[in-house]
Design brief:
This protein has about 110 residues and is mostly helical.
Length: about 110
C-alpha cells in the first residue's frame, strides 16, 4: 500500500517551503525554480513532484513550457489547523504583557 503525502509533510522541508514562497509570487517553470537553488535540477524536480502530489502546486502547460502555480486552498488547511494554537498563544502573550505592565520598572 502506497501512502499519500499530505500538506504537512510537504511543508516540513525548508526547500519546499522556499519553492512555495517563490511560486506564491509568480508562476514559474521548473527550470526557473531550479535556478534559485544550489541543488541539482533532479533534486528540485523531486521537491516539485511532492508539492504537486500534495496539490500545493498546480501545473499549467503553455505551449511547450510547464508553469507551476500556487494552490492557496491547500495552504488554507494548514492555516485552519494552526489557528487555534495561534489564538492560544495570543491569549498567553496578552497575559504575560499584563503581568509585565504591573511589575515595577527597574532603573
Amino acid at each position: 500500500m502506497r501512502l499519500r503525502r499530505d500538506v504537512f509533510q510537504a511543508i516540513a522541508d525548508p526547500t519546499r517551503r522556499a519553492i512555495i514562497s517563490l511560486v506564491a509570487l509568480q508562476a514559474m517553470t521548473p527550470g526557473a525554480i531550479a535556478e534559485e537553488f544550489d541543488f541539482s535540477r533532479q533534486t528540485i524536480s523531486k521537491h516539485i513532484q511532492i508539492l504537486t502530489e500534495c496539490e500545493i502546486l498546480k501545473q499549467e502547460q503553455t505551449g511547450r513550457e510547464i508553469y507551476y502555480h500556487l494552490n492557496p486552498e491547500k495552504l488554507k488547511a494548514i492555516a485552519d489547523f494552526i489557528e487555534p494554537y495561534r489564538k492560544m498563544w495570543d491569549i498567553r502573550f496578552d497575559k504575560l504583557e499584563a503581568i509585565m505592565k504591573d511589575q515595577p520598572k527597574r532603573t
